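@channel sequence for tomorrow's demo:
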Amino acid sequence: MKAEIISIGDELLIGQTINTNAAWMGQELNKIGVHVYQIISISDTKDHIIKALDEAKCRTDLILLTGGLGPTRDDITKHTLAAYFSSKLIFNQEVFENIKSFLSGRSIPINEFNREQAEVPENAKIFQNKNGTAPGLWFETDGRIIVSMPGVPHEMKALMKEQILPAISAFFITPVILHKTILTFGTYEARLAEILTDFEQSLPEAFSLAYLPKDGVIKLRLTAKGTNKTALTKRMEHTISELYRIIPEYIFGTGEDTLEQIIGNLLKHQGSTLSTAESCTGGRIAHLITSLPGSSNYYIGSIIAYSNRIKEKILNVDPSLINNHGAVSREVVEAMAQGVRQYFNTDYAVATSGIAGPDGGTIEKPVGTTWIAATKHQKIISKKFLLGNNRNRNVRRASLTSLNMLRKLIQM
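C-alpha cells (generated this afternoon):
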C-alpha cells in the first residue's frame, strides 16, 4: 500500500521551519510496512489543501496531514476537511474536557478560541491529544484513510506512536519491510558501484540496494519486502554476509554507528588512550570524539596547531621540516602526530595539516590538499588526500578520514 504525507504551513515553504515531521513520519510508517509514495509541503489555503487531497487520493491509500489545527484564525485545516467531507462541525465534550485538563495543568485560562477546538467534523474518528489542544482526525472514504494531525512535533509523534500507527496497522494489510544499512568509508560512490555490479545484479527480486553518500561515508541501504518475516530475515543476513565478503576493507559499521563510536569502543576494549593534533580541521576531530558520553575515559586532549609556531614550540616539529617540505607535508604531519602523542603520553594519536581553502593553494598543493597521520608508539601511517575546493566540506571530510585512518590503525 502507498501513503502520502502532506505538510501544511507557509512557514515550511519560506524556510522559517524545517520539515522534520515528514522525515520522522516516513521512518515510522516504513517500520509497519507502509510505502511512502510522496511527501509534499503546501500553503495554508483552502484551495491548495483540497487540490492536494484530490491528487493524493488518485495515487495512494493513506494520506497523512500535519499542521493547521491550532486555535488561531489562520489554522484552517479542520474547517477545510469538514467541507471536503460534507460534514458539519459538532461540539465534542470529551475533546473539550481534554483541552481543559491540558490547559489547567499549565495554569492557562481557557478562552473561546480553545473552546472552538472542541468542535470537530461529525464524521471523523477522534484521537485525543494528551500533549496539546488539537485532536487528531481520522476520515474513511472509498477504502482510503485520511488522517489530520497537529504540526507541533511532540504532539504529532505521540499521536502517531500511541494511536494512529496501531490504527493503520489494524486497518490495512501491510507487507513485511526490512532495512539494513551498511556503513562504508574509503572509496567513492562510482567505484563502489563498480565493485558491487555483480552483487546488485544477483540480488533477489524482492531486494534493492541504495547508495547514500555524505562527507565520504557511503551508506549502503538494503531493502527487502515480502510476507514471511523469518524467511526474509534469513535471506537478508545471507545478503549482508556477501557484502562483508566483497568489500571488507570499506565496511566500518552498520545502522546508526559512527566512526567516533567505533573508535571509542575499540579504545575502551583495549584500555588505550588517544590525543589529537589538528591544523586544518581546527578541533573538529576533538569535537566528534568528545560528543560521546564517557569519552574522557580514553580521550586525553588536543592541540590545535593552526600556526607553525605552535607546531614547533608545543609539538616539537623541527623547523627545518616546515622550511624544506612545507607545513602541509608528510614529514610535518607525522612529526605532529608523534609530538602530540608524546606531549599527552597517549597510546594513539592522529594529526592533520592541509589547505582547507578557499585561498592558500598552489599548483603543487591545490586547495583541498590534506595530509593525515595516525600513530601508535613507533608505528605511524600517513597519507595525502585531495578533498576538493569547498572549505567546510574539506574540514568535515578530513575529520572523518582521520577517524577512519585511526580505526584501521587500531584494528591492525
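heads up for whoever presents: The CA atoms of residues 85 and 141 lie 9 Å apart.
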